[in-house]
Structure to design on (832 residues):
DNA sequence: CATGAATGAGAGTTCATTCAT
DNA sequence: CATGAATGAACTCTCATTCAT
């Protein structure tokens, strides 16, 4: 009556973990992970409005189990996005750290935003609308972007007057087009245009 | 316990209208118009997800009438947006025609897109997602933008390689930020940046 | 898929009412009445905790219809009880007015409370717990009881110091026994005892 | 992300308990007691409708243990009340035995009923509805009340014709008011009235 | 034998669409 | 041809009870 349990939790049991340390917890944790995995996938595909039952079905658990782990749909959504967002931001940090050229670091971030957008609807929806699923996430992201901005500024490659908020909004704004146009080459063009508008080649002051 | 039957449809029967065989037609047409008007307002305010009842209420007709004229919510939405879109595009034409400077015509269009976005949620949503409510609308819009593009191109003020699609997507993409940030000065900055990226100061080829 | 429509609305179309004056309203009113009737019956039988679906089923309407007439279960409950309470209090008024002897009027009221209790669980539950389904109901009831009390007091048949609140609480308190013991003769004995305790034969002051 | 497994059941394993074969038994018995204790407290506070989880939480055992000892919520409720009821009745016996004046013994019992009502919701609910949680309890209570009644009767202080059932019902009936009115002085008035109605000052026969 | 996670049948409520009047 | 009442599937969430570990 239920699929035989999807075999693929995203977060697999940590590599060298020995036989489950505690009788039950392992299974519960597996379920919890399965729910988040499923939720993440479902939210990514259909957005935040999907039926919770779809998530329960996909994760192979009953409604009760789902609600035992997450007291409300809202909570599940938040947690799922929080996790995704964190992973995403971590990757962003790594990439930026591995990139010497400040401008390339910035463009790399824009690229990551847009690539992710193609694969996770709910995640990027939250990025676009509020900057992230959580105040804390938004803050961290802002801090990260601010660092990027300062690097570029000090290298003299960023248009004067560009704020962190500008970068946040602009990167989010471009997300729309990824949803709209399936073709990657298409949205890369827009990204290039916007980034060029951010370059220090332009020195005219921005409004207000 | 119930109001004695509000005898007052918003559009009252025209005074001297004879019991002409066409009376019904006229009435129906009036209803149809009232529905579209109301739908337009409601969709603009609350987006495409509003309860259909709200539209019926606002237009002063019953649900049956509404569904007689429009077989589904979808249809009503499409038609309402079609109309709005056309009016909007007409205005865009007029403005562009009245603007001598090609570049100013282009920026003026971007500005109109974003200003409208602040006032008509559903309309711009469709613009962002598919370029317009209808294939036909999208086409007309594309033609218009193409004209703008050509004017700019011929004046040598547009970055080489920028396509009509680019302009369509880019203008739509900026819409997001209007929703997100309430402040007009905020989104004007992003618009400036994007437009600058479109200027002929940049001659590097765009990807693909 | 639904019973062919229970033929018996409690509130039948007013006697000499000619063919339904208004196209639809009549039917809707019938449904509304059917819902209240069903709700009243169901609440009376099972208390306030029944499934709303049971009411919908019993009244022969869909859930939507029920919720069209009453925005929430709470509202339906309140209205149903309000109606019952009013009818009940009206009858109480009539009886009291038709009874010359003040003491008999008081006992008659107690009797009515208990008789009703045997037939309407939710109604009397509200009477017992808060004095009625609504502040307004409670007030009216209090006023009525106060009148009864004054009549008895002036006739010198009521124990000195007995307050309106005492009478309200005492009548409610006896309700319990009706639920408990099915036999009418049983609870009449208790009523007699309590009423005797209220008689002016006792002149000892009440506590506090 | 989860507390490291709270190692602390409320009733910790007694220090020097040997790994005796009876160890399990003892443990089980301790659990059973803990459950009843918790259930009693919880039922007293919130009534019989509380979530079973609350009881498990409060007793420090898992749901499985709870259901091992008590096959259903109903059973647990019954047992908990049975125990409370017995203790309560024992106390009633003691008080009655320690009271010389028969009438004072009777009033004392009424007072105990009402005082308890203020402190143990579920217990008194069962008293009110069925006379007690169990046929056996009801019987014992009836016997006790009958003794009280006989003492009063023989002392000539009880209204002739008052049955044991009358006393049972009347004392239960007054419980309602304790729930309703918080003020102790308020329900004492009603109690006084009812008791006065039971006094031998009234010699009129009771109905039926 | 204890654990507490899992279950799933409802609960109250909403809304696009249909249909009797 | 208009009306707006009726429909009912779908939604989020709860809780008594079972079952794998």
């Amino acid at each position: 009556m239920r699929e035989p349990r999807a075999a693929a939790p995203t977060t697999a049991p940590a590599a060298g973990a020995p036989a489950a340390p505690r009788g039950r917890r392992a299974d519960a944790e597996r379920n919890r992970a399965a729910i988040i995995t499923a939720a993440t996938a479902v939210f990514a595909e259909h957005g935040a409005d999907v039926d919770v039952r779809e998530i329960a079905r996909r994760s192979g658990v009953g409604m009760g189990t789902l609600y035992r782990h997450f007291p409300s749909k809202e909570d599940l959504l938040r947690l799922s996005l929080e996790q995704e967002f964190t992973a995403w931001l971590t990757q962003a940090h790594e990439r930026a750290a591995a990139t010497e050229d400040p401008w390339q670091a910035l463009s790399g971030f824009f690229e990551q935003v847009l690539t992710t957008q193609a694969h996770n609807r709910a995640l990027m929806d939250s990025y676009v609308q509020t900057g992230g699923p959580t105040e804390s996430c938004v803050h961290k992201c802002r801090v990260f972007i601010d660092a990027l901005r300062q690097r570029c500024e000090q290298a003299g490659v960023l248009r004067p007057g560009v704020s962190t908020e500008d970068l946040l909004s602009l990167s989010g704004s471009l997300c729309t087009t990824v949803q709209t146009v399936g073709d990657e080459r298409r949205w890369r063009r827009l990204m290039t245009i916007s980034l060029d508008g951010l370059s220090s080649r332009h020195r005219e002051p921005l409004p207000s």
